[in-house]
Amino acid sequence: MYTKDGESYFIVDAHVALWDARPENQRNIHGKQFIDCFYDYHRNLSPESEVWSYEEYLYQGGDRLMKDLFQDGYVDHAIFQPAYLNEFYETGFGQSEEASALAKAHPDKLTYNHNFDPRNGEEGLDQLRADAERFGLKGVKLYTAEWHGDSRGWKLDDPWARRYFELCRELGITNIHVHKGPTIRPLDRDAFDVADIDHVASDFTDLNFIVEHVGLPRLEDFCWIATQEPNVHGGLAVAMPFIHTRPRYFAQILGELLYWIGEDRIQFASDYAIWTPKWLVERFVDFQIPQDMTEYGPITTAQKKKILGLNAAKMYDLDVPADLRLPDAEEPATGPRQPEQADLAKV
Amino acid sequence: MTVAHILAPTLEEGARAALGAVVDPELDEPITDLGFVRSLEVDGHDVVVHLRLPTSFCSPSFAYLMASDAKDALTALPWTGRVVVALDDHHDSDLINAGLAADAGYRGTFRHEAEQDLEGLRTTFRRKAHTAAMERCLTALLRSQPDRDVTSLGAVTLADLPSGEHTEALRRRRAALGLPDDPVALVMVDHDGHGYPPEEVPLRLRRARSTRISIDGNAHFCRGLLRTRYPGSEADQAPRHDDPVFIPLTTLQAPKEHTT
Question: At what angle do helices B60-75 and B119-144 cross, to 10 degrees?
């Protein structure tokens, strides 16, 4: 919970990780390259006071995570979105055992989502059944650029992926978090393209597809498919810290999202441990769209409350104190929102 | 710098100018402006270039495109002999560098991961670059003419645009798509040159704007990451066109000598 100026905000951090990138867990050079890439994200976009040492960054452990999120970070509930990356790390990148045990010990504070890889075929389907039962899964995190033998990527509308979504439906795994990455098969295509999300969102209307990083680096393609599909949502992981380094760019991202998909389908995330939630929550509550950006309306307190927690809380059936809840906006299910704000505009 | 030197650029300057024609398709900027050229050495007719990218995990297809375009641009110079282009510190450096050295082409380099070629990918990003350039021109027009009706933008022609950097950039991107350059040509068109009915114009402009914001945002992020990854690389980056104009205090105190 975060309170400022008499307003209280229920905070859900919809994308956190408990990773182990220490050298002893690195399988090869790519394990080092991957965490170094994350560390550069962290150093590049964090305020100086929030920058960690490289050693701290390699591994945090459960105690540190609990402190950073719940003691210091105002977070009421956080959702693990583990990346597997078994080709880079001995026990994977996201630590399933440690994270799921932590979630089991603190069910009021933590939800554990797991992952699957459709390239595992029938065996993977059995594994997903077992994982759903073991972890009580409501959601999964999918990374389409995961390396797997001689394949370095897959698409959500691959025939095998559809089999997995059918099983998700059966098992009550309704929240499909999707993270696009730099590789795909074949490499001829744009690996970050989100058209496959469009296809499966149309076919599996009873599943929620949360596009992490709001489709970045393809924000425009994400906005375009999400405005047409009421079950496509945007996760703000990685977009959030621009609030510090490039606030005008952050304002544009937010302005575009509010225009194309509306206030009820955007979810806050710190992407812990890439960044920590404390400063992001504080900055976001203080944030306003600059006045000279007349192409966007100002962001309201109610919109901030929804983005910071109420939207994800609704998706995950979290218990929000009655006085902090808000009704959905009276907006169309598809198509641009606040079209009257469209632009500089005299139409 | 002597007058003779200006009149007869060195081979190294010629090689650098050739690399200036190599563009990062996603960011729509020359690799020389982005700071992606780490080093350039000319020894007689031999040229050795090292490229660097903002992360080890930049898309290998884009990395390959830039590296192979760089090699092609240098090889096409009349005086070059042996040309070596090497991509540093990338997860696919070994694969890409071996492919470049052997002139294996895209399919020869990525083998089972390649299906046809990267021309479709290139086209996708040429179209995005055009959309963004179009939006820059039209939004600038809208801001300079506050009483203008948005729907009227659908009828704006190239002749209606003020001359300047945005318009020149748009014309170059139109040329890359084979779109007409005559003064009566419509500005607001799709990649095939088709215009939009007035009622569609506001939404199309908004969509074009999201494309422009996306490209600009990526460019700033990638530039920043390169500076974080390679301290000192900021000296090799030219300001991006949408950067706010400001004169850094350090420049005022100690003017740098410009060598190009």
Answer: 90
Local structure of A210: helix, strand or coil: strand
Question: Going by C-beta distance under 8 Å and a sequence separation of 6 or more, which residues neighbour residue A30?
Answer: A87, A88, A147, B56, B91
What own/partner pairs with CB < 8 Å and gap ≥ 24 does A327-332 have? A328/A264, A329/A262, A329/A263, A329/A264, A331/A262, A331/A263, A331/A264
What residues in B contact A339, CB-CB < 8 Å?
A: 202
Quick check: A182 and B59 CB within 8 A?
yes
Give A179's strand partners: A143
CB within 8 Å: A219 and B91? no
pLDDT(A35) > 80: yes
Helix (H), strand (E) at residue A157: none
Does residue A334 carry a pLDDT above 80?
Answer: yes
What mean pLDDT is predicted for residues B234-258?
Answer: 57
pLDDT in tens, A228-263: 999 999 999 999 999 999 999 999 999 999 999 999
Q: What whole-number distance in Å separates Cα of residue B41 and Cα of residue B50? A: 9
Tell me which chain B residue has its CA closest to the CA of residue A190.
B121
The pTM assigned to this predicted structure is 0.94
Domains and CATH numbers, chain B: 7-113 (3.30.300.130), 122-217 (no CATH)
What confidence score (pLDDT) does residue A332 get?
85
